[in-house]
Write a structure and sequence with these properties.
2 domains; 12 helices; 77% helix
């Protein structure tokens, strides 16, 4: 009888375990059922945010283009929003943006790529572990600090060599932006080159190529898509930079190619207008959104171009 009682107790215990497992399985199935929906909603936040930004910019920019013809806006070479007879030509802003970006890339491109080559192909593992984090510290410095550095140190230094350079100019912020972008290009390019299989390097060296020849004829072509993508992203970063050009380049809306003169970029103009000089509902106020939508399109096209280059030249190993 005692054995029969023990068997019954064990059966009851097993049935309780089975019931608990079924309950846990039901909860697990319910969670699994809702997880895709939750993840979809979270992933949709970025898309909805982008659509919200685009709607805000377009709805306000339309108000501006009702007062200023779109052709006049994109072809006008004079920007005088606060004069008695205001003119709204965006070419001075586009010119200043492109020139500052070109100066930045002339600095960041070669230095960033050479830094990536050294870290990937020549530096030892110990040196790489030290230098790469130190290089990436530059990316953590606030841009407003870069701006004051350009205005209080780089500009006086340039003027001590070239006195004809203005107190505010596009050269100084362009150079400092280049320094700021170096970590982005160096880090992304180094990652692209590191991902190239060592068998390709060993095969090249075994054929009698030098390390330099292997780097420029094997590694860089194999990592070309990643390197180009890093350059395009660096250009996008320079186009969207705000504080450096706002502080060091001034607010002169000059349509000139003289890099020693003050110019204004699209982002700096947005900061100026948003600073409170323009009353809400005025043409000047709406011009902020017209410039912003232009900047949005610039950045979007650069990012799409980076994705295209990355996919077109991607190597499969």
């Amino acid at each position: 009888m005692q054995k029969i009682s023990e068997v019954k107790q064990e059966a009851i215990h097993v049935s309780e375990i089975i019931a608990q497992n079924k309950q846990k399985k039901n909860v697990s199935n319910l969670v699994e059922k809702w997880i895709p929906t939750i993840l979809f909603l979270l992933a949709s936040i970025t898309i909805l945010t982008t659509l919200g930004i685009l709607y805000t910019l377009l709805s306000q920019a339309i108000q501006f283009f009702r007062a200023v013809p779109i052709w006049e806006f994109f072809t006008g070479a004079v920007l005088k929003p606060l004069s008695q007879n205001p003119e709204f030509g965006i070419l001075p802003l586009i010119n200043g943006t492109l020139i500052s970006t070109a100066i930045a890339m002339l600095v960041a491109g070669p230095i960033g790529l050479m830094s990536a080559i050294y870290l990937s192909e020549y530096a030892s593992e110990k040196v790489r572990r030290v230098l790469k984090p130190l290089l990436e510290i530059l990316a953590g410095i606030p841009t407003i600090v870069y701006g004051f550095f350009a205005f209080t140190f780089v500009t006086p230094l340039i003027r001590s060599i070239f006195p004809e350079v203005g107190a505010t100019n596009i050269l100084s912020p362009g150079l400092v932006m280049g320094v700021m972008i170096i970590p982005m290009i160096a880090s992304l390019s180094e990652d692209a080159m590191t991902s190239v299989p060592n068998a390709m390097r060993e095969g090249s060296l075994a054929m009698g190529a030098t390390k330099l020849e292997t780097t420029f004829k094997v590694v860089i072509p194999a990592a070309f898509s990643g390197i180009i993508a890093s350059f395009v992203l660096g250009i996008s970063r320079a186009i969207g930079e705000t504080m450096i050009v706002t502080i060091a380049s001034g607010s002169s809306k000059n349509f000139t190619f003289d890099i020693t003169q003050s110019m204004q970029t699209m982002t700096a103009y947005i900061v100026e207008v948003a600073g409170g000089e323009a009353a809400a509902g005025t043409t000047i106020y709406y011009s902020l959104y017209a410039v912003a939508i232009t900047l949005f399109v610039f950045t979007l096209l650069m990012n799409l171009f980076a994705r295209y280059i990355s996919r077109k030249f991607r190597e499969e190993y």
